[in-house]
Hints:
- It contains 8 helices and 7 strands.
- The protein has a single domain, classed as 3-Layer(aba) Sandwich (Rossmann fold).
- It has helices at residues 17-43, 59-69, 86-93, 111-121, 162-165, 167-171, 191-201, 218-226, and strands at 47-53, 75-81, 98-102, 128-132, 149-155, 175-179, 206-209.
Amino acid sequence: xCATCGCGHSHSHEHSPVEITxxxxxxxxxxxxxxxxxxxxxxxxxxxxxxxxxxxSGKTTLLERTISEIKVRPVAVVxxxxxxxxxxxRIRRAGCPVVQVNTGAGCHLDAAMLRDAIDRLxxxxxxxxxxxxxxxxxxxxxxxxGERGRVVIISVTEGTDKPLKYPYMFAAADLIxxxxxxxxxxxxxxxDACRSHVASVNPKAEVxxxxxxxxxxxxxxxxxxxx
Length: 227
């Protein structure tokens, strides 16, 4: 696993001073690269949105729908996965330029990976650049990519208490998307309680409930993306 953010130390909750110093240096270097990414993207009026979630939340489905329905700005996608090109192929079939970044044992994208992907992708000036991060509700929150906004996507099949179990991820988000609301009659998920949990860790975050497959409340999602 990834030692950079500490998740490789599964057998102990204690870190040595050397490990802590290494992690601090890695994060500091990442922040420098993220700042450069932000300047680069802003100079080209490219709005990068970092999509983070656990696996199976519906990130790729939401992206497919967004690509097909947003026509006012060009869209490009960076796909992050540990292995395979499956999601990138789905995005390409949806008619969108895409670059796949495979992290191997790594559990997140970082600023250097994003800059390399941007250089390969060469998104148009004024584009929306969606970054589909590796499916993980811990490590991606630690790494600034230089993005304009951070979106955490959860689904009603995952449980109401996700914001309490992964507070750092939800605290780092600008928007929380609760997906698959068409399944609410069939699962034990309390939307009001979830909103309350989000507010307890991030009072400033907006919570948006929608269904990517059924199209429910997608207009609100598009307004946020284009704002």
